[in-house]
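Review this fold:
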Amino acid sequence: MNDVTIDDLTVGVLGGTGAQGRGLALRWAASGLNVVLGSRDGERAEQAAANLNSELSSVAGAATVRGLANREAAATADVVLVAVPYDAHDKTLADLVEALDGKIVIDCVNPLGFDKNGAYVLPVKGSAAEEAQAILPGSRVIGAFHSVSAVILEDLSITDVDTDVLVLGEDREDVAVVQQLADRIPGVRGVFGGRLRNTGQVEALTANLIAINRRYKTHAGIRITGQGL
């Protein structure tokens, strides 16, 4: 990734037909980045891409979104976001080990369960991101975009998303690439949040934000304060 700006990259979004993946894809394409949606069903991905392109038709400078089956999307992209449900997380990645080899893989999956009392954290081996790294030994996994509201992302009339994204990973250059991706969304700032082993706390925090959303009828995000940020 040396001397490569994110404008030179194609961003793949696995789970691009779901709300979180679709919202991030929409914002990145609106900023002019090349985006390809991935889904288990290639035709479904194509339809989702067509819907996004319809929304983007009036956005100056927007890129065209493509839709492909997961394997083709992973192979085409330079950087890949994983935004699938947690119960599909491990199998999805296990099927794409070769296609994702050597690439930055951004994991935004939150291992949460839901019952009548709301969201709660599922037991995992450290974090979903660490599980992803174990499945993808040849990839460089970064944890990020865990708590950005899909509702806000999908509404282009909201011009300031007003949240920070904690970016966690082992390599500073890879982290910097993902921070740039966060910064491309209006109002969002990518902030280094530690090494991958600390991703579990960030994933779990999403359960608290869901509780806030239910109580206050909002779409809460986080902001990190402090001098020098």
Notes: The longest helix spans residues 199-216. The chain has one domain: 6-216.
